[in-house]
Amino acid sequence: MKAVEIRELTTDEIRDQIDEAREELMKLRFQQASGELVDFTRIRLVRRDIARYQTIISERHREVSMEGEA
């Protein structure tokens, strides 16, 4: 999912996406450990998605805190 698409989501929806991505990452790691994983690039893509989600949430927190200071 692109950052523009993520920014259209609410914070709760983004948190749900983070939970789903973390669950997928855990499953991929288990598959890797057991030798079943075929697409190794998927792990990197899921990790990047999680980072993207977290970045947008932290941007929103910064915006809120900046508004509170003004």
What does this structure look like?
The chain is an all-alpha fold. It has a single domain, classed as Helix Hairpins, CATH 1.10.287.310. 83% of the residues lie in helices and 0% in strands. It has three helices and no strands. α2 runs antiparallel to α3. It is elongated. The protein starts with a helix and ends with a helix. The relative contact order is 0.15.
What's a concise summary of this model?
The chain contains three helices and no strands. It is mainly α.
Features of this protein?
70 residues, Helix Hairpins, elongated
- Strand % is under 5%
Multimeric state of these chains? single chain
Number of domains: 1
Major sheet: none
- Share of residues in helices: over 70%
Average pLDDT over all residues: 95
Q: In whole angstroms, how far apart are the ends?
A: 33 Å
Structural class: mainly alpha
CATH class, please?
Mainly Alpha
Shape: elongated
Helix and strand run: HHH
How many separate helices? 3
The CATH architecture is: Orthogonal Bundle
Question: What's the CATH topology name?
Answer: Helix Hairpins
Unreliably modeled segments: none
Write down how many β-strands occur, each being a DSSP E stretch of 2 or more residues: 0
Gyration radius, rounded = 15 Å
